Amino acid sequence: MRSSFAAIRLLVGTALRVDRPRALLVLILSPLLNMVAAAQAIGLQWLIDGAAGRSWGLAVWGGVLLAGVTVAVHQWAAISTDLRQTLQQRIGLELDRRLMTVCAGPGRIGHFQDPDFLDTAELLRQRRGEFSIAFAALVENANLLARFLAAAVVLTFAHPLLALLPLFVLPLAQANRWQAKLVNEAEQAGAAADRRRLSLFALATDAAAARELRLYRLGGEFAARHAAAFAEASGPRETARLKGALAVAGGWLIFAGALLTGLYLLARSVFEGTASAGAAVLVVLLATRLVGATTGLSWLLGWLRRSLHTIGLFVKLADHPKDTSTGGAAAVPERGDLVLSGVGFQYPGQSSPALTSVDLRLPAGSTVAVVGDNGAGKSTLVALLAGLHAPSHGVISFAGQDLAEVDPAVWQGRVTACFQDFCRFELFVRQSVGVGELTSLDDETAVRAALVAGGADGVVATLPAGLDTQLGKTHPEGTELSGGQWQKLALARARMRTAPALVLLDEPAAGLDPDSEAELLRRYLADRGPDSPITVVVSHRFSTVRQADLIVVLRDGRVTETGTHAGLLAEGGHYADMYALHAAAYVDGPPSAAERQVTA
Fold first, then answer.
1. pTM of the model
2. Domain 334-414+501-561, what fold?
3. Tens-place pLDDT, residues 98-109
4. What GO MF annotations does this protein's record show (predicted)?
5. Which of 348, 356, 487, 591 has fewest C-beta within 10 Å?
């Protein structure tokens, strides 16, 4: 119940914020005119009783009331449709914008590691079309309540006991509420299976995966797993719907019994002469409307319940614990050492830390290579340096300034990066690169300079419209790039910020050949000077790693070795072993100690 009230507050508050005049008109006049519509029955009663008793004044007033209310109701119905459609569109756009802000706004990204957050986000992605119609569901149910209240008041004049008739709708309303609750709980429980089903479908229909799916004969396996995930998600939903349908049927029986009893009382009053023919018409008319309204009750309440549940999911996602701390108002120095002191990090829900007691000093202007086995914590370290996660314990400082005292968004504004799982912005080329620095988005000179610095100028030269080429297969006229071409654009995007404090390259050239990666790092090294940023490179290619000023070796979440390429080879530790395995891929066997010294 509390979540429903929170959803209603959000919905009404959003409507008032995006268009207060329209919202007030719809929220006030719609229920009011639905109450006034009951006066049609009163006008009809006066008209019939006046004609039967030759009281022409009463008949005239009845006709005027009937005609006036009918015109007002029909005119409002035409006007309110346009008002509501415009309002619903604005509400939907506003909630879409707020959802994007919740998921992609400033701050940390730890909540994206939480399965509960991901399940809720997946449900919202499936239901986001309901944002724009949730307000209509609220208004229609308010109109329904107004009709029932007006009917109860008017029926009192025909027979006191008939005023109780609308109350017998309550068991039906409660049954609908229970049915919707069961279905929503079943959908929430099946969200993980739905997420798995959609992932399987996306992979099975992806052109990039087509070769391996056929080569390994995985089509049937994927289809079977897709069907199993669907059964896992849909089975509980169907059970919930069946239980709810039985409850709704019981509610209908109660209402039907009350309605028949009321009609019996009316018929007896007419035969006994205690009720007029007009009163009989009034009761039959309102009873007919009650039956019609009750027929739509199941659908309207189900619609409202589902809409409020969807908005409730939005509230839940917005209120989900996130690290949105602003840190403080401290400024970020221009240049300095980046120091990690006793830094550790553990992902939510995990039993062991990803990083433990990391002590590092990354000198100002240096190029640092981070190496280690898969799962050693390299990408976690990069995320911490970028300010995307806050350390579970320990301190990260830049030029002596504790970054916990700096707004994460301010620090992130001083960082540029190219990640292993880079984003493919399906925009025009100039925009896909330019978003790396929004203040220079429309600066063609800056974009072209970034393309050259990132080694992507050759990619643009092959495109049909150059910088104005639309990228991406989701656009009918879009041009699809190869993985390596997309990666070069991502690298160019990382060069848009001309004076960052920190450059992060997490497997930045995984889709490129070794020579291209070595050339990439050579370009970064060539740009080094007294005011250069700290550059951190994560790579498995030692032709790249060996060029770094400092090499950091991670193993099981701990820093086990630091030094230069030559120094680490001389120590004969884990780095030397990894280098030997790497070299063995290119020669008949691992290099000897003497050979290592030569290659160093």
1. 0.67
2. Rossmann fold (3.40.50)
3. 888 877 766 777
4. ABC-type transporter activity; ATP binding; ATP hydrolysis activity; ATPase-coupled lipid transmembrane transporter activity
5. 348
